[in-house]
């Protein structure tokens, strides 16, 4: 798992390689099997997946709606397959799966295709069932992912959604300048991820300080809300520490009752339009005695006196790209907590790398 976390800069580079067209400020994704006319006719996008791939799909919904202005939803494959889904015209479906063998996602794909849907795969494993049975798709090219806890597949899957949102956006309302800004930001992400990986030692120390806690909350908003969910999943599956991922805004509707000195909260604090809202959510936790670990942009002064610990991430020009930088410290934190507790990180109990049964 550690090796795969550290492979992320290279994996993202591979996912982007040959797919960005700076001259046209757009992306090229060869395997879609769709003409520009087909792409233009897309009126909505529906994504289905499981686990970490589902959270990557959630990030995808934010991107497709904000960058491409195409309505987009995501649904757990295990739910979709049994609820007699309605397949609408001019709708593009994505099945997202690292392994390409997850039974729920594969059966959801088959159910959608049986009803006449066009389903594209976003897979890592070349020639896997979902890659073979889909109507086209995009390989994430993150290289073999062996550890049960998915890490580099997540950042590679969202890379594909940034590219696809850029492609659809540039066929619609996205200007040349805006497309170029997105393309350039995506190209610097591997370097920014490397900068976070270089903080390995301090994140390890932080994990040592917190690994004995029994419950954690992971809180984010907007495009970082799925990252909070992913952070909680990582911690649960390899360290067996109970963790809940929530929208920071939602805690007042229930989870805030969990807050006390024994329940630390991870807050994801990007410097985007939601920052002030997140900080106000932090204050609510602080005033109830909860410990706070913030993942925040370098030089963010407003957290002093609120956060107990801060993991700093580099500042980005475009706030939409923070999921890449927010997720890496959470992966490392989960990894080092698990090591601290003596867990078998690569073979966590009760889990298999790919879930090929119901
Ligand atoms: O191979 P897939 O992406 O379809 O797998 C989906 C989930 O089983 C997977 O992401 C699982 O949640 C991981 N153990 C998460 O780390």
Walkthrough of the structure:
This protein is α/β, with parallel strands linked by helices and 358 residues long. The protein has 13 helices and twelve strands. The strands form three sheets. It has a five-stranded parallel beta sheet with strand order 4-3-5-6-7, sandwiched between helices. α2 (8-16) packs antiparallel against α9 (176-197), α8 runs antiparallel to α9 and α10 (200-210) crosses α13. The longest helix has 22 residues, at 176-197. 5-amino-5-deoxy-1-O-phosphono-D-mannitol (M6R) is lined by residues 50-53, 97-99, 102, 105, 148-150, 233, 237, 351, 354-355. The site of 5-amino-5-deoxy-1-O-phosphono-D-mannitol has 17 residues, from α4 and α11.
Concise account of the structure shown:
The protein is α/β, with parallel strands linked by helices and 358 residues long.
Estimated helix fraction = 40-55%
Physical arrangement of strands within the biggest beta sheet:
4-3-5-6-7
- Give a quick account of the main beta sheet: strands, pairing sense, barrel closure: 5 strands, parallel
Q: Low-confidence stretches at least 5 residues in length (pLDDT < 50)?
A: none
The chain-level mean pLDDT equals: 96
Bound molecules: 5-amino-5-deoxy-1-O-phosphono-D-mannitol
Supply the number of helical segments.
13
Strand content: 15-25%
Structural class: alpha/beta
Work out the number of β strands.
Answer: 12
What is the distance, rounded to the nearest whole angstrom, between the alpha carbons of the first and last residues?
25 Å
Shape: globular
Order of helices and strands: HHEEHEHEHEHEHEHHHEHEEHEEH
Gyration radius, in Å: 20 Å
């Amino acid at each position: 798992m550690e090796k795969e976390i550290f492979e992320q800069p290279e994996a993202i580079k591979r996912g982007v390689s040959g797919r960005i067209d700076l001259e046209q400020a757009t992306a090229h994704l060869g395997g879609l099997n769709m003409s520009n006319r087909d792409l233009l006719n897309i009126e909505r996008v529906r994504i289905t997946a499981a686990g970490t791939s589902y959270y990557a799909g959630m990030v995808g919904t934010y991107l497709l709606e904000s960058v491409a202005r195409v309505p987009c939803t995501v649904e757990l494959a295990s739910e979709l397959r049994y609820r007699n889904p309605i397949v609408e015209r001019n709708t593009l479906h994505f099945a997202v799966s690292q392994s390409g063998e997850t039974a729920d996602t594969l059966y959801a794909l088959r159910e959608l295709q049986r009803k006449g849907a066009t389903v594209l795969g976003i897979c890592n494993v070349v020639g896997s069932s979902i890659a073979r049975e889909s109507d086209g798709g995009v390989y994430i090219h993150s290289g073999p992912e062996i550890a049960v806890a998915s890490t580099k597949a997540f950042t590679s899957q969202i890379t594909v959604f940034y590219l696809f949102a850029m492609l659809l956006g540039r066929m619609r309302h996205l200007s040349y300048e805006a497309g170029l800004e997105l393309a350039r930001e995506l190209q610097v992400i591997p370097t920014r991820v490397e900068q976070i990986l270089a903080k390995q030692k301090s994140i390890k120390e932080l994990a040592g300080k917190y690994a004995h806690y029994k419950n954690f909350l992971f809180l984010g908003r907007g495009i970082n809300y799925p990252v909070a969910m992913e952070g909680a999943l990582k911690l649960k599956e390899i360290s067996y520490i109970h963790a809940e991922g929530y929208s920071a805004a939602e805690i007042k509707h229930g989870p805030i009752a969990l807050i006390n000195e024994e329940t630390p909260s991870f807050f994801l604090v990007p410097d985007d339009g939601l920052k002030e809202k997140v900080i106000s959510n932090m204050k609510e936790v602080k005033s109830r005695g909860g410990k706070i670990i913030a993942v925040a942009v370098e030089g963010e002064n407003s957290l002093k006196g609120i956060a107990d610990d801060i993991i700093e991430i580099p500042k980005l020009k475009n706030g939409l790209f923070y999921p890449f930088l927010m997720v890496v410290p959470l992966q490392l934190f989960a990894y080092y907590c698990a090591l601290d507790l003596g867990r078998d990180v690569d073979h966590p109990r009760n889990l298999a790398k790919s879930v090929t049964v119901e």
